[in-house]
Design a protein that fits this description.
The chain is an alpha+beta fold and 196 residues long. The protein folds into two domains: 67 residues, Uridine Diphospho-n-acetylenolpyruvylglucosamine Reductase, domain 2 (2-Layer Sandwich), CATH 3.30.43; 119 residues, Uridine Diphospho-n-acetylenolpyruvylglucosamine Reductase, domain 3. The chain has five helices and 13 strands. The strands form four sheets. A five-stranded antiparallel beta sheet has the order 5-6-12-10-11. It has a four-stranded mixed beta sheet with strand order 1-2-4-3, with helices on one face. Helix 2 runs antiparallel to helix 5. It is globular, with a radius of gyration of 17 Å. The protein starts with 5 loop residues before the first strand and ends with a helix. The model has no long low-confidence stretch (mean pLDDT 92).
Length: 196
């Protein structure tokens, strides 16, 4: 087994609110294979599982979570021309800064949003009149019920105010995201860094 299962792990420090109980079981996954393995582990033990990534806007009950908490910590990303392909676990603000260093942006107003890009896509996070939907080219996701891997183009994500297809369909877990950026000048990039 590639994944490591830990028992009775405090969760408060893994959320931006910093409160709440612990997890009966917790594992951290970086790949699609590890994610599948974690889900199978939970199902083999007839226990529930919960997905956690950046931990923003998440309230953990004081009594904790009884099942397996699967923490997505994948943080790989690559730039392809004007596009950025990033794993769901990548920190959104870090990605905005990294893009700015390469002269790519347009999404600097989102730099203050905490958490991962996967969570930000799921909730169509936004700030100052911009939302993630404005930059999302495609989202790759895994259906934990059927085992299907699918790439959703922007329109298929059904973005709405602080919502998306993935928020309405819990069976789909976001794996990575491709965002379309544009070339920006040093001044715009510096403003984005300042906003963060």
């Amino acid at each position: 087994m590639a994944i490591e299962i830990k028992e009775n792990v405090p969760l408060a420090s893994l959320t931006t609110f910093g409160i709440g109980g612990g997890a009966k079981y917790l594992t951290e996954v970086k790949t699609d294979v590890e994610l599948r393995e974690a889900i199978i582990w939970a199902r083999d033990r007839i226990t529930s599982f919960h997905i956690l990534s950046g931990g923003s806007n998440v309230l953990i009950p004081d009594e904790g979570l009884r099942g397996l908490v699967i923490r997505i910590v994948s943080d790989s990303y690559v730039f392809n021309g004007l596009n950025l392909i990033a794993d769901a676990g990548c920190n959104l603000t870090m990605l905005i800064r990294e893009a700015g260093r390469r002269g790519l942006g347009g999404w600097e107003s989102l730099a203050g949003i905490p958490g991962s890009i996967g969570g930000a896509i799921r909730g169509n996070a936004g700030a100052f009149g911009s939302e993630l939907k404005d930059y999302t080219f495609a989202v790759r996701a895994y259906n934990h019920e059927t085992g299907e891997l699918r790439t959703f183009v922007n329109e298929a994500c059904h973005f709405a105010y602080r919502s998306s297809y993935f928020k309405q369909h819990f069976e789909w877990i976001i794996l990575n995201v491709e965002v379309a950026l544009r070339e920006i000048g040093p001044q715009e990039s510096a403003e984005g860094h300042h906003a963060a």
